[in-house]
Amino acid sequence: MKRLLFVGALFMAVAAPALAQTAPAMPASVALPSAPPPVIIPAPDYNTDAGWLCLPGRQDACTVDQNVTVITGDGKRMVVKFKADPAPKYDCFYVYPTVSLDPTPNSDLNIGPEEKQVAASQAARFTAKCRVYAPLYRQVTLAALRDIMAGKASAADRKLAYLDVEAAWRTYRDKYQVGRGVVLIGHSQGAGILKQLLAEVIENDPSQRRLLIAAYLLGTNVAVPAGGDVGGDLKRTKLCKAMDQYGCVVSYVTFRADSPPPENSRFGKVPQPGMVAACVNPAALGGGKAVTDAILGAKGAGLASAPMGPWTSDNAPVTTPFVSVPGLISAECVSNGGFNYLAVTVNANPQDPRTDTIVGDVVVNGATLKDWGLHLIDMPVEMGNLVSLSEYQAASWRGTPLDLPKKK
Fold this sequence. Notes:
The protein has about 400 residues and is α/β, with parallel strands linked by helices.
């Protein structure tokens, strides 16, 4: 089965040329029918199960197979079976990125395979530690994004998408949260929406701020003062600097260490004077370079990526949806050419049987779009770290901090 790792479909839709539509010429005397009125998509009702992509206590996109094949440096394999926590102590509120294949500027609220697949790859693993709530929302679609990037006029309504998520958040707070701490998790369009929710709603309400364990705003730019950790896009919520810190933000955009963002990149730079894009490395919150706990898609990084080759030199197939390759990937927040980003290094060793490369670049017609970096795997390169970090932060939020892991 083809697996999309979050925004893989996005780039295919952006890069695919529009299909030429032709029709027979109409006689001048024939009156053409009026254009149909625009489709009005009703607002979601978050008081019903139908308003949610993922909701605790039911079988849905966040209760799918998360088993991992662990491949060590000597090529040995072990399958680690995933187990969701039957009684999580905290919540996760997840907003998915741009994946909708609907032809309209804003998506409908029908759950398609693309929404299921992105939740499976980004949100489901968090059920090992928290209850996951993921609202459906009328997001700006891939079709609209394609038009926008081509310089065409678009009727896409970004405010509509935001207001849906804000409504879902209010329903979550009133109906489900009941005083529990919560981690906000979003990628790309979803992260941008959560950044706005945090800035306009949560930061301005002390009761909501008290319930925030952390916000993981990934694959989007969060402006902070150069040399500072708060005061740009967010006025009260600081960047996370330690595993036992809570009420803070993790944000980064990802590029290969040997392929930094080119001047035209949309990621890693902000327009506000005196501000830079935040970069917080979940594997090294205090700074520096660290090996990450990457959990990658066994088949690759999505439809816009080059396919993943064999994981080991014996070409043995992987039978689980995900792969872990301990020690293979390192990451470090760097500043380079006016950009702040998470630089990813593949620690290739030609002497061991594991792969010496990973996929995750956006590739169109054989050409790598370097301005997108490793956007396809923003979350997978640090997935294990993010899940683990949420547990430590939640424990500190509850007042029962865990012993911090020893530095290696």
